[in-house]
Amino acid sequence: xxxxxxxxxxxxxxxxxxxxxxxxxxxxxxxxxxxxxxxxxxxxxxxxxxxxxxxxxxxxxxxxxxxxxxxxxxxxxxxxxxxxxxxxxxxxxxxxxxxxxxxxxxxxxxxxxxxxxxxxxxxxxxxxxxxxxxxxxxxxxxxxxxxxxxxxxxxxxxxxxxxxxxxxxxxxxxxxxxxxxxxxxxx
Length: 187
Description:
Helices cover 34% and strands 26% of the residues. It is built from two helices and five strands, in the order αβββββα.
């Protein structure tokens, strides 16, 4: 039973999710719908918590200070509303849940940076996105080819039927595909 549930859950996972850890500074690009309009809004902040990393419910909590007020937002990484997540800075931390950052501001809120290859981290996501797009294009091409083939077969069937009717009319016979008209019965 677990295998079936796992397969269903894996269908909803994105193929390309960047490796986000607690202590990372990230930019989360999120789709926002306002009426009939749609736009992308960027939320930049510090990841103070990660959860369910290998699940389709993988979640991060991002904190930032906006107008002197601490704002925290949780994002489901596999949600279709999340366009992408960029890691801009990686810091060294020893915990997963950084609750102590809520009480800190200014210099005390600075974290020790770690050298990391930002392009390499984001390139993994980009490569997976490209592979996913290629797969979708191939599936669309296969569907289009199958539709074209079905349409061609249908057209060939219609052409052969039309040729049979034409041949029957030329011989002044009733074709086998048509039924003769019934004569009205006298009353």
